[in-house]
């Protein structure tokens, strides 16, 4: 991180500093910070994603009551996870079954959306431990600013998730009434459903649980991604604010170290969740296109159905903008902070034996594109171009 030729460096001394990556995953728990945003972990737990590590009672001394509680929690999590995977499997099988004998063009997008939702769940589930570690690492960095109050961010995220959850309930009720392709499926399955009515109830319940898990995973991941971006920007802002107060090399070193650690947190975060981000953006873009295409080119839709499609389109657009704007602004904040530190370094702390290595890490879409504002315009332009192309060539 830092290698100094003297123990007490000053501005006028010949000091060689090499700033390298020395970030390690924090293992300690910051209860005060984690308690403020515990609701995020509860949201993941509702869909079988337990981000907290299960402690082994045999390896540590714990009371029998605590061990019993831990064991029950582990069993519940395991059963819930397996149950959700069964729901996903049955959903895909049912969609594939009803596609037989029908026009593949109308059913293929629905199957793709189902597969993408399953992929999103699996990708988040596989990286569930990194969710907690990322939050712990950010909490360690935020200890540098003990006076900062996170209540505003906490209540904003609670309000956001409450809104998306309520909208999701109404959205599913409307989807159950107007759902894409549901009436066509009824004609194909009517013979089976008349002989075995319980199959109809089973399909409806499985469909409901699938959409419930899907909207919860989507909302929870968006909340988590936005929270990491906001907390990172808070750290970058404090670095820039305190840089003007720096007068000695020691204080400058602390700010650069803090900046480097935050960049490494973002690098680890992007490495683990850029694929989940890619799937989420893909799901929102498909949702925007399907809803917009149905409203524009299907003329016999009733008014209430069009209202549902338009509201769904705006919800998907809202999700996409939240993610892409959060990532873009965070990349800009990281770059601005690096530039400010470089300028201050060259102006006041540069010497023949002073070497500084500022790494530049950016949030990406599955390592394909670096998130910036122009990408937001390009994504909507792609949807518009594709829509015009399909409208010109025909349905």
**Morphology call:** globular
Spatial ordering of strands, largest sheet: 1-2
* Helix count from the secondary structure assignment: 11
Q: What oligomeric arrangement do these chains adopt?
A: single chain
Distance between the termini: 60 Å
Helix content: over 70%
Order of SSEs, N→C?
HHHHHHHHHHEEH
Q: How much of the polypeptide forms β-strand, as a percent range?
A: under 5%
**Runs with pLDDT <50, length 5+?**
1-30, 56-61, 180-194
Largest sheet: 2 strands, antiparallel
Could you give the topology of this structure?
Layout: H1 31-36, H2 38-46, H3 64-99, H4 104-126, H5 128-142, H6 151-178, H7 182-195, H8 197-243, H9 249-297, H10 303-349, E1 364-365, E2 369-370, H11 373-393
Antiparallel strand pairs: 1-2
Helix pairs in contact: 2-8, 3-4, 3-8, 4-8, 4-9, 5-8, 5-9, 6-8, 6-10, 7-8, 8-9, 8-10, 9-10, 9-11
Overview of this protein structure:
- With 395 residues, the chain is an all-alpha fold.
- It has one domain.
- A two-stranded antiparallel ribbon has the order 1-2.
Quickly list its features.
mainly alpha; membrane; 75% helix; 11 helices
